[in-house]
Design a protein that fits this description.
Elements: H1 10-16, E1 18-22, E2 27-29, E3 38-43, E4 46-51, E5 57-63, E6 68-69, E7 83-86, E8 90-95, H2 97-106, H3 108-134, H4 137-148, E9 162-163, H5 167-174, H6 178-191, E10 194-197, E11 200-203, H7 206-210
Antiparallel strand pairs: 1-8, 2-7, 3-6, 3-8, 4-5, 4-7, 9-11, 10-11
Helix pairs in contact: 2-3, 5-6
């Protein structure tokens, strides 16, 4: 199950920092900026992506309420390795590691959750590297669909096994062009692995998708 900060612990972040709202498409922070602030997503979703020198973007994750972004701020004198933008209207609680420290010392539960979140981020990054470097096009799409629908996630708009993604949004997430993704989705739909609707992709046969990985 995806690790999140439970709402019962949000007040620690509220005491340590300030709350801000970012409109859809707005930038939370840019790649290369000094890292000094940690953000807890209180409401909404953000996209985390890397921008290459040629302007190409590689989406690393879409995160929802209860998740942390900017955890590189736990390291001193570091810079932002990625850019984060709002998918929809997002409410964030921003604080520094220093301002959060007194509450970490008070709450064993908060401390444990933060360690689990950092571990989860590392595991997710490893999964992304594997998808981008070792999988073929069909496996990239299949692995993303399987991973995202492993558990329902209403905060992320994932109800049951249905993803609220357009073909273009999915293409950005898996690092492929939209035409290629559309062809693969139509193929999967023909095989009965998924169902397609307007801005919706429903996984109907997980075993079929899993069969693409020998």
């Amino acid at each position: 199950m995806m690790i999140k900060v439970p709402e019962s612990l949000f007040f620690y972040f509220e005491r340590a920092g300030i709350t801000r709202t970012v409109p859809p498409g707005g930038i939370v922070y840019m790649q290369g900026e000094p890292a000094g602030t940690i953000y807890l997503i209180k409401k909404g979703r953000v996209r985390i992506y890397y921008m290459g020198d040629d302007g190409r973007e590689i989406t690393l994750a879409v995160m929802e309420a209860g998740r942390l972004v900017g955890d590189s701020s736990f390291l001193s004198q570091s810079s932002r390795p990625t850019t984060v933008s709002a998918v929809n209207e997002v409410t964030l609680i921003s604080c520094t590691a220093q301002s959060l420290m007194p509450y970490l010392m008070k709450s064993e539960e908060l401390c444990l959750i933060l360690f689990q979140l950092l571990t989860d981020s590392c595991n997710h990054l490893c999964s992304q590297v594997k998808r981008l470097t070792l999988y073929d096009r069909r496996q990239k799409v299949a692995s993303f669909l399987l991973e995202e629908t492993e558990y329902p996630n209403p905060d992320k708009g994932i109800i049951g096994s249905t993803l609220p993604y357009s073909h273009e949004e999915l293409a950005i997430c898996v690092g492929l062009n939209r035409v290629t993704v559309t062809k693969i989705l139509n193929e999967f739909c023909g095989l009965g692995y998924i169902g397609l609707g307007y801005r919706k992709i429903t996984v109907t046969d997980r075993t079929g998708l899993e069969s693409l990985f020998p």
